[in-house]
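In the previous chapter we treated chains in isolation. Here, by contrast, the input contains two separate entities that must be folded as one system, with a combined length of 774 residues.
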Amino acid sequence: MSRYEKFKESFKGKKLRESLLGYAFIALPLVIFFAFSVGPIIFSVIVSFYKWGILTWRMDFVGLENYMKILDDRVFIVALRNTLLYTIVVVPSQTLIAMGLALLANQKIRGATFFKTTYFTPAVTSSVVISLIFFWLYMKEGLINYFLSFIGIVGPNWLFATSPPNPNYALLAIMMMNIWSTSGYYMVMFLAGLQSIPEVFYEAARIDRASRWQRFRYITLPLLKPVTYFVVVLSVIGTMQIFDQVYVMTRGGPYYYSTTTVIYHIWNKAFRDFKMGYASAIAWVLFAIIFVATMVQRKLVKEAGVLY
Amino acid sequence: MSSEATTWQKVVLVAVIIAILISAGSIYYATTIMSELSKNTENQATLIGTMSDLADATADIAEDVGTSLEDIALIQERLTELEKATKITVLRFSGWSAGPVEEEKYRKMFMEFMLLNPFIRVKYETFESHERILTQIAAGTAPDIFYVGSEWAPRFMSEGVLLPLDGYITAEDKADFVPALLDAFTWEGKLYGLPKDFSVLGLAYNKQLFTAAGLDPDKPPTTWAELESYANTINTTLGIPGLVQGTDIPRWLPFVYQNGGEFLTANFNESLATDTNTVASLNWWAGLYGSTWFSAADVGAGWVGEAYGMNKTAMAVTGNWAIPYIKEDFPEVWADTGWAVMPMGTENATMAFTVSLSIWEGTENPEAAWKLIDFMTSYDGQKELVVDWGHALPSRISLADHPDMWPEHATFMQQYADSHAFIFGIYGSEIMAAANTEIDAALYAGKTAADACADMKTAIDAIIAG
């Protein structure tokens, strides 16, 4: 029976009352969902074909012009490059660190709960607050450079690099902060994955004299694959949408749009330059990129045969 | 009892809870409305008294002079005014806040206004930046009065979301405002806001460091040549940067104007970046970067004022907002600080940053809104909000020589006639971004001034063309 048939079936006879009751229960969230999520999404598709300055309701239809302009937008190219670089660095690092932390936290050691809580704290802290704290940590005379000075390193001005040819560390600094702040969140997911692996597998392996490494390589890792897939997908989506850290810490700078990300560019176009249509068009291009990236990951993982 | 019945019972229970919540909410709401109404009734009681007086007066006039049509018209007018006044007008005033001290000042100001105008109530809303106003305007829920930064003004004015003030302000009153500031809020001959105050760029210099470097502590640089040579002298004798300043467009433009150059045409429809004087100013300004002057980041400070306060430089081009900052945060440096106007090229020029109080075009109470703006930007209003507090300069010329003005601010205020408003037309934000990119290239990547200006013009003209 197809899904649609099932859906139709649910409105017949005795099932009708049950279905209606179900819909009655979710009515309010459904209305809110349509009004504040689906509505704006549909609206942004429409707006992306118009020139619209938000202040008045005058909208001029421009067809595909907004999408064509993206190709010539130098800042968009820079922003996309920054965003991809950011994703490529952050996703593997935070996935590996999260998995490592989860493995450690899963040991039966004293104080494991304390560490779990500590690592998870950044995940429940507002990203703006974290950004502000790191803004101070990263200052030329901030705490990080103070600690570096103990081992004889003169730290750079992390966020606001001095003039070139001195390297510009701003994007790297934001990457490091994000790896730190989100690893704990993904650690919890890995932890859940680890704890759902039945102990019998390990027992059987131990009887077969599998080494620690072998147990990890041939039991833990394969059984963690669904969680890993989930973490990587979430992480890619999250990093592609990086905005608040940039907004708070560098405002896309310090120069040459060095930390301008796609979302930050969208925000600039929409609220700084009043180009709602163009901003919507970029948003849909970003959606397409994320969608393709997720589909590719799904395909890769499916080929490896772990999605059941 | 079947399980389905239980489900229904649950539904009823949920419904009852929701009903209780809703009724509790309505009761609370009703009480609020009632209390508002009772206040209204009090006001009406006073008014009824006034109205009966007026009726008596009418009778007197009719007896004594005989009833003329003009008299009746006048009396009717008064009566309508009174009728209107019986309704409490609520004005929403929205601006960003420069901290709790300013907010307190504004609240006090609103209190004074409400005492004088008992039928107007002012609601003060603060916001962080323009995005909130943008969405409120789009949604038709904008406040009656709000701040408009000069760089945003052209967009707001051209889209017709602000109310023209020409019908309200008198020519005499208008003439008292700094012209460059009024220009910033004038579009196609109409005025769309009154500058609440303004800030300009000037020069802070450290007298002690000047003496240490063998310079006369009472003679700040007055020309480009002096600025350059003093900065170099300080650099060689003391080993610290002689001059620190910002690296973005509003910091470069004073030097453009000082050199007789231009950035945009008067109606913002074409870039003039390839003007010989403009190119020459970039050539001079960018050429000295890294040897004569440095950025705040270069000396490890967050901004120019901080770099100066931390004694990392002997001179800093900064705005008057740095004056109270240095006084409060760096009292020792403050004692040695001298303040000067911008050193001049072939002419005097500086950049003026301003914010207007403007009325939303969709307001229901334009008269009341104007009353409030007029009250706040009046001589007394600015005296209290701007001069006494000392964070910005008064936008009224008649306050320029007020004895209560901080002497440092008075120095900066001297430049009001040489001020150029920070305003670049409806594509201002994009134009600034494009110009900053080229300035960065000239400062950091060694792009020649001629190339940077040529590319700047191409980019800006493309933005204006749409």
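The CA atoms of residues 150 and 184 of chain B lie 6 Å apart. Chain B is about 55% helix and 15% strand. Compare these points with the single-chain example from earlier in the chapter.
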